[in-house]
Design brief:
With 393 residues, this protein is mainly β. The protein contains one helix and 32 strands. The chain has one helix spanning 4-20; strands spanning 66-70, 79-82, 88-91, 100-104, 109-112, 124-127, 133-136, 150-155, 160-166, 175-178, 184-187, 202-205, 210-213, 223-226, 232-235, 240-244, 249-252, 265-266, 272-275, 289-292, 299-301, 313-316, 322-325, 328-332, 335-338, 342-346, 351-354, 361-363, 366-369, 375-378, 381-383, 388-392. The strands form nine sheets. The protein has a four-stranded antiparallel β-sheet, with no helix packed on it. Strands 2-3-4-5 form a four-stranded antiparallel β-sheet, with no helix packed on it.
């Protein structure tokens, strides 16, 4: 599950969509929406950014990797998913856009894709075994402003989009992962009403094009981490569970130590790395980091992040290290201050190494590992351009 700060931010933006975005036309295919920057979003004031150098004083030439801008019209809060052919499909975004785009890593070119049936932002997108992409939930425009239950299937080869049924629980900013049997597990997100977290899991079956609830004794919500054996960790704020697709059962992980969840990612060792979180006294993001041993439930602290952050991305690289990018770093009165920094976790030393500075300031963005080992960073709450960039380790 994304952090509480992230969900609150999305709820604020979703309220602005209905009030300030231009009226949607009667026919969806007649609307074209420009891509906003943070300062374009109505009612939002851009904050100063934390772009402080490495705390160790490393010179730019000593920093890991390099970020390069990508010319793209991606908006705030789209959904990005790696397709079976190696390209990345980016869909929707603020304010509930219909447009989709395809990023080709071979040329770094971005081209248009099929238009969605329904404009949406803060939705989920998962590539299925047959190459089609499941798109569900999120926030719409006007009367459809609240969390959506609708779903659609996009075929990037045929260039077609069709209905895929309805979520059992409307939700925005949800987590989703494709299971080994081809189904999709969906968790968390913000629901209707007061926007509280959705505590019900559900599974999409592409063979039947249906969504069904998972029966659990506990209220279960959290970020999803698929293990190498096909099971899925649901990492909640203070508890963790295991979902077993063999029988669709959910069991608690008896965590010990000072467990917490923050942008979890699976390490090659089978442990799950947690980083950052909210909040230290004064509202600043936390520098903490730790690893969860799924087999024993043990939670062990590792070296702190160089920069405190929340609403950041954590992406395992091809060599087993983990790239940490952006997020909210601190609080300046009522304003959240994003950090224009990146770092890499080394599981061998259990420490973080400062990486080169990202091109743009981002929080609540998305990151996709490409087949060539680079990482595509898209969207997010940001100031200025570009709307995408690529990290080369």
């Amino acid at each position: 599950m994304r952090g509480a700060c992230f969900v609150a931010l999305l709820l604020t933006v979703s309220m602005l969509v209905a009030c300030d975005a231009s009226e949607p036309p009667s026919a969806p295919n007649q609307r074209a929406t420009p891509s906003p920057t943070a300062t374009d979003v109505p009612g939002v004031t851009a904050s100063p950014t934390d772009s402080s150098p490495s705390p160790t004083g490393a010179a730019p030439s000593d920093l890991l990797g390099a970020f390069e801008p990508v010319s793209a019209p991606f908006s705030v809060f789209p959904a990005a998913t790696l397709m079976s052919d190696g390209r990345v499909l980016v869909t929707g975004g603020f304010p509930a856009m219909l447009e989709t785009w395809m990023f080709d890593p071979a040329s770094s070119a971005v081209g248009p894709g099929p238009r969605l049936m329904e404009g949406r932002q803060s939705h989920l997108a998962v590539t299925l075994a047959d190459g089609s992409v499941l798109i569900a939930g999120g926030v719409g425009l006007g009367d459809a402003q609240g969390p959506l239950a609708t779903a659609e299937l996009l075929d990037p080869v045929a260039g077609t989009v069709r209905s895929a049924g309805m979520l059992q629980v409307p939700r925005l900013a949800a987590e989703a992962v494709r299971l080994d049997d081809g189904r999709v597990l969906i968790a968390g997100g913000a629901g209707a009403g007061d926007g509280g977290p959705v505590t019900k899991l559900e599974v999409f079956d592409p063979a039947l094009s249906t969504f069904s609830l998972v029966q659990t004794e506990d209220s279960v919500a959290g970020a999803l981490v698929k293990l190498d054996d096909g099971r899925v960790v649901v990492a909640g704020e203070s508890s963790a569970w295991i979902f077993d697709p063999e029988n669709d059962s959910v069991s608690g992980i008896p965590v010990s130590g000072e467990y917490w969840s923050g942008s979890p990612v699976l390490l090659t060792s089978g442990e799950v790395l947690m980083t950052g979180g909210c909040c230290a006294p004064g509202g600043d993001a936390l520098h903490r980091a730790g690893v969860l041993d799924v087999a024993t439930g043990g939670f062990t602290a590792v070296d702190d992040l160089n920069h405190g952050r929340v609403n950041h991305t954590a992406t395992r690289l091809a060599d087993g290290r983990v790239l940490i990018v952006g997020g909210i770093g601190s609080q300046d009165g009522p304003r959240e201050v994003p950090t224009q920094t990146a770092e890499v976790y080394d599981p061998e030393t259990r420490s973080f190494i400062q990486a080169s500075q990202p091109v743009a300031v981002r929080s609540a963005h998305q990151a996709n590992l490409l087949a060539d080992g680079r990482v595509l960073i898209t969207g997010g709450w940001r100031s200025g351009t570009p709307s995408a960039e690529v990290f080369t380790p």
